[in-house]
């Protein structure tokens, strides 16, 4: 008999500290935390990491420290996924592809197979991203054992067009790795909740913690359900945040308030 699909999916969000410009230290830290997440009594189905966790925002040196051709770190994440039988939404890494630097999310299935790759499409000028990074050109969704998920990274959540496009393509969960700093905690929480409520989807957001230079990252990773209820929220310290995704809930909420049927796109575009 085939394995039964569980009605809920256990999520572990690794709200980690990131060492500025030290990919080796960050890889070690991330693998240790992932190991800890994997050994929880209730084993996660999915582990989620923060944005640019290999380098932090060491943009002045990014060309030298970004993952060469996006090989080493994706291989490590894939090996972890395979050896633990856990899906990995690998936050994002800075990678150097043929001399161009991208901020890219890699996603792996339980057998270590690559399910998706998404490169951040909206570059954040307040942190000079556009001077050092190349923007991605594709909107990306992927399947996690029957759940359709959408990819976005940090600043992307300021663009409701992206999450709406993903929702229209069937996404029931939006993943948001981030390095979002003070003083914009209010923006972070409000935007994440809005994306969940307006699209009637889960939002799983993983923000880093700690200080790099004069920038303070506040954590507050969140799992928000399609009603906009907070399933779990971190504080400002390193933590593995856990929560469940109920496969049926996005459909139930969309039936109760049929936002997608009530849209009038002819009038908006
Ligand atoms: O939009 C913001 O306020 C923060 C965005 C950000 O830090 C990023 O995209 O890296």
Automatic annotation (TrEMBL):
Keywords (alphabetical) are: Hydrolase
Q: Which organism is it from?
A: Paenibacillus campinasensis
Q: Which residues form the CN hydrolase domain?
A: 9-247
What Gene3D superfamilies would the database entry show? Carbon-nitrogen hydrolase (3.60.110.10)
**Which family is annotated?**
Belongs to the carbon-nitrogen hydrolase superfamily. NIT1/NIT2 family.
Q: What is the lineage of its organism?
A: Bacteria, Bacillati, Bacillota, Bacilli, Bacillales
Show the PROSITE patterns listed in the entry. Answer: CN_HYDROLASE, UPF0012
This chain belongs to which protein, by name? Carbon-nitrogen family hydrolase
One GO molecular function term of this record is: hydrolase activity
């Amino acid at each position: 008999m085939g394995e039964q699909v569980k009605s809920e999916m256990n999520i572990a969000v690794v709200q980690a500290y990131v060492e500025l410009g030290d990919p080796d230290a960050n890889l070690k830290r991330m693998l240790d935390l992932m190991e800890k997440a994997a050994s929880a009594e209730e084993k996660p189905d999915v582990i989620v990491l923060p944005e640019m966790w290999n380098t932090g925002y060491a943009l002045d040196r990014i060309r030298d420290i970004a993952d060469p051709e996006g090989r080493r770190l994706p291989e490590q994440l894939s090996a972890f996924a395979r050896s633990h039988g856990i899906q990995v939404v690998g936050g994002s890494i800075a990678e150097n592809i043929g001399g161009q630097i991208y901020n890219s999310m890699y996603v792996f299935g339980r057998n270590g197979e690559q399910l998706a790759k998404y490169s951040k499409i909206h570059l954040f000028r307040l942190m000079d991203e556009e001077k050092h990074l190349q923007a991605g050109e594709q909107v990306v969704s992927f399947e996690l054992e029957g759940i359709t998920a959408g990819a976005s990274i940090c600043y992307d959540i300021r663009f409701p067009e992206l999450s709406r496009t993903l929702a229209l393509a069937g996404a029931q969960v939006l993943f948001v790795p981030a390095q979002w700093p003070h003083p914009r905690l209010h923006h972070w929480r409000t935007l994440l909740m809005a994306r969940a409520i307006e699209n009637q989807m889960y939002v799983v957001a993983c923000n880093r913690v700690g200080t790099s230079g004069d920038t303070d990252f506040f954590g507050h990773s969140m799992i928000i359900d399609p009603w906009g209820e907070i399933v779990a929220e971190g504080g400002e310290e390193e933590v593995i945040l856990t929560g469940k995704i109920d496969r049926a809930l996005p459909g139930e909420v969309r039936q109760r308030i049929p936002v997608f049927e009530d849209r009038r796109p002819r009038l908006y575009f």
